[in-house]
Design a protein that fits this description.
This protein is α+β, with helices and mostly antiparallel strands and 602 residues long. The chain has two domains: 17-27 and 46-62 and 86-210 and 430-563, Rossmann fold, CATH 3.40.50; 218-427, Galactose-binding domain-like (Jelly Rolls, Sandwich), CATH 2.60.120. It has 14 helices and 31 strands. The strands form seven sheets. Strands 1, 2, 11, 13, 14, 18, 21 and 25 form an eight-stranded antiparallel beta sheet that branches. An eight-stranded mixed beta sheet has the order 7-6-5-8-26-27-31-29, with helices on both faces. Helix 3 packs across helix 12 (533-543), helix 5 (155-162) packs across helix 6 and helix 6 (185-202) runs parallel beside helix 11 (470-483). The chain binds NADP nicotinamide-adenine-dinucleotide phosphate. NADP nicotinamide-adenine-dinucleotide phosphate binds next to helix 3, strand 26 and strand 28.
Length: 602
C-alpha cells in the first residue's frame, strides 16, 4: 500500500509562515465548511459555493502552509498567522514575466518553495546564477522542473507537476515573432490549460493533487485546552499478552501537550505500548474539540462516536523522538478490530516546534492484534473500509510490529515519548490558481452594439490581426479556469484571471517610470495601456494572498501617479489592493448582468 503523508512545522502554536513572511494578519479560528458537492446545483447554490470558496481562499491565506503541506494552529484563537503558501508552481517560469514572478516570490518570501516549470532549464540558468550575489533572493528554494514542450504533456504528467502545491501561476503562453508562433496557441493557451484545469478539477482528491489547508480542520482532541483530555486515555500495553512494557498518557501543563510515554520491551514476548481514548470519555465534546461527537443507538445501545464523514483524514500535531508510531481508529463493535496507519516522527525539531502528519482515511488498514485482517483469510473483512462517520476511539501505538504485520525494522526497545498538541480531522482543498491572460481576448467576439460603442478598442492591431486566433484560444483557456470553481469533484479552486495590457520591461521610451505607475483595474475588456512585467509579477504574487481577487476576471494596467496638490507625487487614489479588487464583480455576478452601453453613449 502506498502511504501518502506529509509533515509541516509549527512554531510555538503559531503557524509557520508567520515566521517566514513576517505578516501579521490576526485571524480567529473559523468553523470548517461542510458540504461541497454542487455540480448542476441551482445558481443560488453555486453562488453560495463561490462565497464558500472566497472564505476558503481567505482561510488558506490567512493561515499558513509550509513545504507544500498544511500546518495548523487550530488551538489559538489569538494567534497571528500570516499570508503565505508552501509551494507555488509557476508555468512558463523562464519567460519574461515568469522570471519576474520567480524574483518576486523569492524576494517577498511569499512561499517556501517555487516549482519553476520550464521548457528548457538552460533558459533559467543565468537568471538563477545572478541571484547568488543577492541574499534577499536566496531564502526560497527554487525547484526547476524542465519538462520540454508543455503541449505534449498528458494529464498524468501535468498532475505530477502540480502534486502537493498550494498555488499555481500560469504565465506560459505562445509568443509570436515575425515568423509566427513556435507553439500553436490552440495547443498551449487553450488545450494545455484546459487539460491542466481538468486535472485540478477531476483528479484533485483522488491523486493527492490537492493540499491541506490548516483551517480545513476540526479539532478532535485538543490538548492545548487543558488537562482533562489526557485523563480520558487508558493504557492497553502488551501485559495483556504476557509482556512487560508499560506506558501512560498524561498532560504536560508546561508544554500544553498530551504526552504518550513509556518503556517498551520485548521481554515476555511483548513489544508494544498502546493508549486509547474512547469518544465516550470526552463527552461533552465542546470541552475538547470541535469535531462533531454524536451519541446514537447501535443495536439498542447508546454509542458515542466522532462523525468525521465530512473530512478526508486525521492530522496529528506532534513532537516525537524519531520513532514510527501508529494511530488506531476504532469504528465498529467487532472485537479487537481497528483501522491503523503509521507516521514517522522527526527527532531533530527545533525546540518548541511541532510537526503535522496527515493520514488520509483511505490509507488506514483494518488490523486485528497487529495483523492486517485480510491475512486472516476473512473475505468479509478484507473488503472493509474505514467508516469515518463512526469513530469510537482514537489510539496511539508504539510497536515492534509494522503496519503490514511483519517486524518493524526500526523498532527500538526502551523509553519513548510522543508529545501530542492536538489531533484534528482535515479536509483536502485544491490549490488556488492564478492565470495570466491578455486584454482584448473578447474583442473579436463583441456584439455589434459593443463594437460600435468602442470602435477604437475593437480596432487595435492585435484584435485586427488576431494571429493564429490567439485571442480566442486564450479566451477558451480562461473559460477552463473559470469552470474550476463550479466543478463537482473539487471544493472549487479559488482562481483569478488577470488580463494584462501591453507588457513592458521598463525600457520602453513611451512608458517611462513604469515602476511608479499606479495600478488600475477594469472589467468588460475595455482597457488599453501598458504595465511593466515587474509590477505585474508583484501583483500576481500579492494576489496569491488576496481573497478579494477571488473568482474574478479583470484587466490591469499602470497609469502615472496622480499628482497631489502640493506636487509631491502622492497618489490621489490611496485605495489598497484589496479595496480596488473589492470593487470588481465576481464572474458569476458579472455573467448575470447584461452589458449596457455607458450613459454617455446611449
Ligand atoms: N506581450 C504582451 O504585451 C502581453 C500582453 C498581455 C498578455 N500577455 C501574455 O502574458 C503571458 C506572458 O507573457 P511574456 O511576455 O512573459 O511571454 P514570454 O516571455 O514569451 O513567456 C512565455 C513563456 O511560455 C513558455 N512557452 C511557450 N511555449 C511553450 C511550450 N510549447 N512549452 C513550454 N513552455 C512554453 C515560454 O518558454 P521559453 O522560456 O522556453 O520560451 C515562456 O516561458 C503570455 O501568455 C502572453 O501572451 C502578453
Amino acid at each position: 500500500m502506498q502511504v501518502r503523508r506529509s509533515v509541516a512545522l509549527e512554531y510555538f502554536g503559531i503557524v509557520t509562515m508567520f515566521v517566514v513572511s513576517g505578516h501579521t494578519t490576526v485571524k480567529s479560528f473559523r468553523k470548517p465548511l461542510v458540504g461541497s458537492r454542487y455540480a448542476g446545483a441551482p445558481l443560488e447554490r453555486r453562488l453560495w459555493n463561490k462565497r464558500k470558496c472566497a472564505r476558503l481562499w481567505m482561510q488558506q491565506t490567512s493561515s499558513a502552509g509550509t513545504a507544500g503541506t498544511g500546518t495548523a494552529d487550530a488551538s489559538s484563537t489569538d494567534s497571528k498567522p500570516t499570508a503565505g503558501v508552501g509551494t507555488v508552481a509557476v508555468f512558463g517560469a523562464s519567460g519574461r514575466t515568469g522570471k519576474q514572478l520567480l524574483r518576486q516570490l523569492c524576494s517577498q518570501r511569499a512561499c517556501r518553495q517555487v516549482r519553476a516549470i520550464v521548457r528548457d532549464a538552460s533558459r533559467l540558468r543565468n537568471e538563477l546564477a545572478s541571484w547568488k550575489q543577492d541574499p534577499s533572493l536566496n531564502g526560497v528554494h527554487v525547484d526547476v522542473r524542465a519538462v520540454g514542450d508543455l503541449t505534449r504533456l498528458d494529464s498524468n504528467a501535468l498532475s505530477e507537476l502540480v502534486r502537493g502545491v498550494d498555488a499555481i501561476i500560469w504565465s506560459a503562453g505562445a509568443s509570436g515573432g515575425r515568423d509566427g508562433f513556435q507553439t500553436s496557441p490552440a495547443a498551449l493557451d487553450e488545450a494545455t490549460l484546459q487539460r491542466l484545469c481538468s486535472v485540478l478539477a477531476t483528479e484533485s482528491t483522488a491523486n493527492g493533487v490537492t493540499f491541506r489547508s490548516p483551517d480545513e480542520m476540526v479539532r478532535v482532541l485538543d490538548f492545548g485546552r487543558g488537562p482533562l483530555v489526557p485523563a480520558a486515555f487508558t493504557a492497553v500495553d502488551d501485559v495483556i499478552m504476557g509482556g512487560q512494557s508499560k506506558s501512560s498518557f498524561h498532560f504536560d501543563s508546561n508544554d500544553s501537550v498530551g504526552l504518550f510515554t513509556g518503556l517498551v520491551t520485548t521481554d515476555g514476548g511483548g513489544g508494544f505500548c498502546h493508549v486509547r481514548c474512547d469518544a465516550s470519555a470526552v463527552m461533552p465534546a465542546e470541552r475538547f474539540g470541535d469535531a462533531p461527537l454524536v451519541n446514537v443507538d447501535e443495536n439498542g445501545r447508546s454509542v458515542p462516536h466522532w462523525d468525521l464523514a465530512a473530512y478526508d483524514g486525521i492530522a496529528l500535531v506532534v513532537r516525537g523522538d524519531g520513532r514510527r508510531y501508529k494511530v488506531n481508529l476504532k469504528t465498529s463493535s467487532e472485537p479487537e478490530l481497528v483501522f491503523q496507519q503509521e507516521f514517522v516522527t522527526s527527532d531533530d525539531l527545533p525546540p518548541g516546534t511541532f510537526e503535522t502528519h496527515f493520514l488520509p482515511f483511505a490509507d488506514f488498514v483494518p488490523v486485528r492484534r497487529g495483523e492486517p485482517v485480510y491475512s486472516t483469510g476473512s473475505a468479509q473483512l478484507y473488503a472493509m473500509k474505514l467508516d469515518p462517520n463512526r469513530i469510537r476511539s482514537v489510539g496511539l501505538v508504539y510497536s515492534k510490529v509494522a503496519i503490514g504485520g511483519g517486524p518493524a525494522i526500526d523498532f527500538r526497545p526502551g523509553r519513548f515519548h510522543l508529545a501530542c498538541r492536538r489531533i484534528c480531522a482535515y479536509r483536502q482543498v485544491p490549490p488556488r490558481f492564478l492565470a495570466l491572460s491578455s486584454a482584448a481576448v473578447t474583442r473579436p467576439y463583441w456584439p455589434p452594439l459593443k463594437r460600435q460603442a468602442y470602435p477604437e478598442l475593437a480596432q487595435v492591431p492585435i484584435v485586427k490581426l488576431n494571429p493564429a486566433g490567439v485571442l480566442g484560444h486564450k479566451l477558451a483557456g480562461e473559460d477552463a479556469v473559470r469552470t474550476l470553481v463550479s466543478h463537482r469533484s473539487s471544493l472549487g479552486a479559488p482562481y483569478a484571471i488577470v488580463r494584462a495590457v501591453g507588457l513592458n520591461d521598463g525600457d520602453d521610451p513611451d512608458f517611462p517610470g513604469a515602476a511608479q505607475g499606479e495600478l488600475r483595474f477594469g472589467q468588460g475588456d475595455l482597457m488599453v495601456g501598458k504595465i511593466s512585467r515587474t509590477v505585474l509579477a508583484e501583483l500576481l504574487v500579492n494576489l496569491l494572498n488576496e481573497p478579494e481577487g477571488f473568482c474574478k476576471t479583470f484587466e490591469v494596467k499602470q497609469e502615472p501617479k496622480t499628482m497631489s496638490r502640493n506636487g509631491t507625487g502622492a497618489s490621489a487614489a490611496t485605495l489598497s489592493l484589496a479595496e480596488k479588487l473589492r470593487q470588481l464583480r465576481t464572474d458569476v455576478a458579472r455573467a448575470l448582468k447584461p452589458w449596457n452601453p455607458p450613459p454617455s453613449l446611449s
